[in-house]
Write a structure and sequence with these properties.
Layout: E1 13-19, E2 22-25, E3 28-32, E4 35-36, H1 44-55, E5 59-64, E6 78-79, E7 82-88, H2 95-101, E8 106-107, H3 109-112
Parallel strand pairs: 3-7
Antiparallel strand pairs: 1-2, 1-5, 2-3, 4-8, 5-7, 6-7
Length: about 120
């Protein structure tokens, strides 16, 4: 599998692993900026299965925080061993927005303002 250079933001790579707390693109651990899993842990397996079914293998172009993402200036560019990124599908759709709209993840206003749908506000 090719290595993804998230710095360039110009290469497509498949979303290869989906766990609520472990997303990987081309083997590289990522955190999507502006969204998080904030639902009860009892829903974790169901939500993970839904995300895998709908998104695993999806080609993505990712750019790190600090390179023009909705989270620039609001979150670190790395969390542990994961790089914090915004990922777009080939048609330009924001993966975090899709996951928030589908109720899989929840928007985090402290990171990205009102860019992503928050589970608390229903917005």
């Amino acid at each position: 599998m090719p290595r993804l250079s998230v710095r360039s933001g110009k290469r497509l790579a498949p979303l290869s692993k989906i766990e609520v707390y472990d997303l990987r693109v081309a083997g590289r651990k990522i955190v999507l900026c502006g969204v998080a899993f904030t639902k009860p842990q009892s829903l974790r397996a169901i939500v993970t299965d839904a995300a895998r079914r709908d998104y695993q293998g999806l080609a993505l172009t990712c750019k790190p925080v600090g390179k023009g993402t909705p989270c620039d200036g609001n979150i670190a560019s790395k969390l542990g061993d994961a790089i914090v990124v915004q990922c777009l599908t080939p048609d330009g759709a924001d993966l975090a927005a899709k996951l928030a709209e589908n109720g899989i993840l929840c928007g985090q206003p402290a990171q990205a303002g009102s860019t992503y749908k928050s589970c608390l506000s229903g917005s």
